[in-house]
Design a protein that fits this description.
This protein is mostly helical. Helix content is 47%, strand content 0%. The model has no long low-confidence stretch (mean pLDDT 92).
Length: 64
Amino acid sequence: MISDELKKLIDDWVKREGRNEFGDPKDTHYAGGNPLFDERSPGLKDRYEYILERNPKLKEELEK
């Protein structure tokens, strides 16, 4: 589970880096319109987990 404090740090990073709401470059397009959709599981993947998985350097920085 990702704490509210960690979520704020991730949101701050997204804004500072000029990323889209999913932590990817602003011009990124997704099949189906949403990268959090996974047809193998019910529901959507957590946005913060997605951002950390796609940005390992950010994850390392936040774990310090």
